[in-house]
Amino acid sequence: MSLNIMRKESLDRYLGEDKLFVKSMNARDLMAIGIGTVIGTGIFILPGTIAANSAGPGVSLSFLFSAIVCALAAMCYAEFASALPVAGSAYSYGNVVFGEFFGWLLGWALVLEYMLAVASVSTGWAAYFNTLLEGAGIHLPKALSGPFDPAHGTYVNIVAVVIVLLITIMLAHGMQSSIRINNIAVFLKIAIILIFIIVGFFFIKPKNYHPFLPYHMKGVIHGATIGFFAYLGFDCVSSSAAEVKNPKRNMPLGIIGTLAVATVLYTGVAVVLTGMVKYTKLDVANPVAFALQMVNQDWLAELLSIGALIGMFTMMVSMIYSSSRLIYAIGRDGLLPSFLGKLDKKSHSPQIALWIVAIIIAIMGGLVSLDQLTSLVNIGTLFAFMLVSFGIIPLRKRKDIGNRGGFKVPLYPVLPIISGLACLGMMTQLKMETYIGAAIWFGIGIIIYFTYGYWHSKLAQNNN
């Protein structure tokens, strides 16, 4: 018997399966999810380190170039989300246009991206929170302050575990209340960043901008390859398509609006930061706080610590939410156990998938040292971006999928091809150990697919 790994899912079945989701989100909510993911602690660190090591004051151009490349992928996501308003993001898109096997690979890549990213950020959040506690004279036992490492006296990072579980309880309580809390947190985070930009503007010294391109355009481009990864995360918006009012209009607004706001904020911080302090002095752990201390604005440096905590909180909210919808979608299709694809009758949300995701992330964040694994987030994301970009071509050829009145990528097929090639080019910038880790992860995924997923999928049942 021959294997048919290219069998394709039906949009109609997806729409039927996802119809029980409560459609409660608008474009503003989607942008809050996206900004909550994209704008994290990186905005307080990357502009300084890229300026010091790669681009000088031209770092603002680096972020602008990064945003242009990301905008291509964002437009491709926006067209897919408009044409296929279903849960599962790139996983579901791949199932419909490429076939089940490529859909599974996309889903498996996103599982890695979402869960590993949240686990890593939970440990960062714990580190910031512990610093605040120590400032108040409260010290957690060493055994509860780090990953499982008996040789160094740590057994569990209890704060990382607790914050993941608290966010999950919030999400399980209902999306409407969760969205309100997330929107408030995103507003506070943006307000803190804008306060820095406004206050910092008055301490700009024009001489700090000279020379503007000390490393020439080569340095700006190298900085752009690093800055590109700062924008990763806007794809989380597409995972919520099944819960959005008027997705043809609101999904593109949410995805592209996220990138636009993120670009303005990153570029604004870069311009002000390199104007406040000479770029050669910014190769420090926390360059924004360092710049504020240099101009005797310690009160704002303390406020940035709160902004960092809020930034990581909103990122975890968005990513845990997106992870649960992804696992739900894979379970819905039978490629993972079908109980993961069930919606709770009361809340109309995937409660089982949500808690499975939370437990896995809490274990990773609480017990495992993730320092060597976080770069895998980038390769998983870029792989998804690349296939979604190239996927616009078969999507347009599908006459059974209508997208009248929805967003479409301009200059088709040129821009989708450029987007896919740009993502492929970014993948070449990753280190060899990242590829080795990715090969192991995808190898495990392929084994799971051929031993379980292929035989239990809804497509297999429909063909029998």
TrEMBL record:
Locations listed in the record: Membrane
Q: Which UniProt keywords apply?
A: Membrane, Transmembrane, Transmembrane helix, Transport
Topology with regard to the membrane?
Answer: Multi-pass membrane protein
The highest taxon in the source lineage is Bacteria
TM helices/strands, residue ranges: 30-52, 58-78, 90-111, 154-172, 184-204, 216-234, 255-279, 299-322, 352-370, 376-395, 407-428, 434-455
Under InterPro entries, the record lists:
AA/rel_permease1
Recorded coiled-coil stretches: none
Main location group: membrane
Q: Which PANTHER family match?
A: CATIONIC AMINO ACID TRANSPORTER 4, INNER MEMBRANE TRANSPORTER YGJI-RELATED
Which protein are we looking at? Amino acid permease
